[in-house]
From TrEMBL:
The lineage of its organism: Bacteria, Pseudomonadati, Thermodesulfobacteriota, Desulfuromonadia, Geobacterales. It comes from Citrifermentans bemidjiense (strain ATCC BAA-1014 / DSM 16622 / JCM 12645 / Bem) (Geobacter bemidjiensis). Keywords: Lipoprotein. This is Lipoprotein, putative.
Amino acid sequence: MSPRYGLILLLLLLSGCTEFNGAKAYLLPPSALGMEELAPRVFVNKEMSLAQREDFRQVVAVARTNITNFYGSITSQPDILACSTEECFAGIGGGKPRGKDLGKSKVLISPRGLTVPILTHEWSHAELRTRMDAKFDGIFGMNSIPTWFDEGLAVVVSEEPRHSEKVWERIVAQKMDTPRLDDLVTLKGWNKAAGKYGDVDCALGVPGKMYVVYTLAGHEVRTWHRKAGREGLLKLIDKVKSGESFENSYAATSK
């Protein structure tokens, strides 16, 4: 094992059971995790029915088109691991979300997330990390890109109805508490806010909960993207990769 992968494994081993299973999913080929190949780079658990497999094959095709259309091309090639049971999802480190990216190399999809918006959302993370040449594949986030932008961009690309502008209008109308963007810069801060404001409960299907944090990030990036467009997004990526601060790049591309 290379020192790079050894460091990733050590850090994840120290983080807990879910992260340990995620480390296995990151480091091992899907076949070693009991997954079956459905299509090139697409894997499903053995228990997934034939009807579910065919449906998910179409989900993958549409999600790939969504990423290509939004970014103008597609550069990422993540392995997609989809589960039809919660046991499968927990076993590969999925945990509570409907979907999860393991950097740019793998995307994990729960039985609650076998949809075009959720796969598109997670694939957007892989695409941005690939374009940013993210350190450690971006499995721990990207120091040069705030988590709220990464997540907000994925919300915009995916057009998930539960993260939509209409949901934001409801949040504002109900005067719900929302976090500050400054609290959502790091992956740790994002995860803390997702628990505090109810996004985690919402992902688990708890009645009456809304995706406050995801919707806030989506609203912010959606507003920026209306001005910046694809050209502005690609310019921002190039600027940050070349060493310019995200803050300056974000401001320059929003004019």
